[in-house]
Design goal:
The chain has about 290 residues and is an alpha+beta fold. The chain has two domains: about 160 residues, 2,3-Dihydroxybiphenyl 1,2-Dioxygenase, domain 1 (Roll), CATH 3.10.180.10; about 120 residues, Roll (2,3-Dihydroxybiphenyl 1,2-Dioxygenase, domain 1). The protein has seven helices and 16 strands. The strands form two sheets. An eight-stranded mixed sheet has the order 2-3-4-1-5-8-7-6. Strands 10-11-12-9-13-16-15-14 form an eight-stranded mixed sheet. A hairpin with a 2-residue loop joins strand 3 and strand 4. The N terminus is likely disordered.
């Protein structure tokens, strides 16, 4: 396994599986995010989006199990992965998505690097602007897989109609969030995933910790934490899963204002010197962290 020859890839979005999409939308609104309208996929899932400049959160649920296609040897089924993750691991962050400038080239690069041999997947749908009008958005995906982290999904996403997707109005959040800062991954042995993550990220710079490390991406970062570091940073107790995603952090302008908003909303949180965070068990299985911009 070797790093791909492409430039490093920034955070594109995070896939967060939920059982009740409307309830998840209400929770994220209570957390202070602006949450988009419901969108339907032809493969049986529906989503609502929380958008930041250049990246977003995808709250997703299974809406029509009968429409989910079965995965194949070289075909990744997004709907099947979401369904199985909800059934086997429960709600929470299950897929990390990085940006792609050329999904077909990235799929070929993943094959050369030995981290995936899937056909690229293209799809389009209608999206709603703030004024209620509809526009076409289109995406092409290239998938990768880390056999040592079977509960974690990985793919890259190329936007074919970016002017119709990104909207500054959708990126204004009452909690003051300005960016998706990081995805947080827990691993019993972070070193076991380093070669895969380096290849998947396009050779992103690795900032060393002790057992843990950070992949510094062009947009955001991936924090890969060992049990001891996770316990210290997020008060997470270790479990028997070799690797899983804990949640994410967003950048905000005023941590105290976030703490006041969470208190007023009755949402439990922890505040330390570095950030304010809502633990996964209080946020539908996905830790939500806030850190200074």
């Amino acid at each position: 396994m070797s790093a791909t020859a492409s430039a490093p890839r920034g955070l594109d979005h995070l896939v967060i599986g939920v059982r009740d999409l409307d309830a998840a939308g209400k929770l994220y609104e209570r957390l202070g995010f602006r949450v988009g309208a419901r969108n339907r996929h032809p493969w049986g899932t529906e989503n609502r989006i929380v958008q930041f400049p250049g990246s977003f959160l995808e709250l997703v649920t299974v809406a029509d199990a009968g429409a989910i296609p079965a995965p194949g040897e070289r075909t990744f089924s997004f709907g099947a992965f979401v369904r199985d993750a909800l059934a086997e691991q429960g709600e929470g962050l299950s897929m990390l998505v990085l940006e792609s400038r050329d999904a077909k080239a990235d799929a070929a690069a993943f094959k050369v690097a030995g981290i995936g041999d899937y056909e690229p997947f293209f799809f389009e749908r209608q999206a709603k602007r703030p004024d209620g009008s509809t526009v076409r958005v289109a995406f092409e995906l290239a998938f990768a897989a880390d056999p040592k982290a079977p509960e974690c999904g990985f793919f890259v996403c190329q936007q074919h109609e970016p002017q119709n997707f990104w909207n500054p109005e959708f990126q204004l959040h009452p909690n003051g969030a300005t960016a998706l800062a990081s995805a947080v991954m827990l691993a019993d042995d972070p070193a076991a995933h380093r070669a895969f993550l380096t290849a998947f990220s396009g050779g992103a710079e690795v900032l060393e910790g002790n057992e843990d490390y950070v992949l510094a991406l062009p947009r955001g970062r991936l924090d890969v934490l060992d049990p001891e570091t996770a316990r210290g940073a997020y008060q997470v107790e270790p479990d028997t899963t070799p690797a899983r995603f804990l949640g994410f952090c967003v950048s905000v302008l005023d941590l105290e204002a976030v703490a006041e908003r969470l208190s007023a909303a009755g949402i439990p949180f922890i505040q330390n010197d570095e950030r304010v965070f809502v633990q996964a068990e209080d946020a539908l299985g996905c830790m939500v962290g806030f850190e200074p911009a």
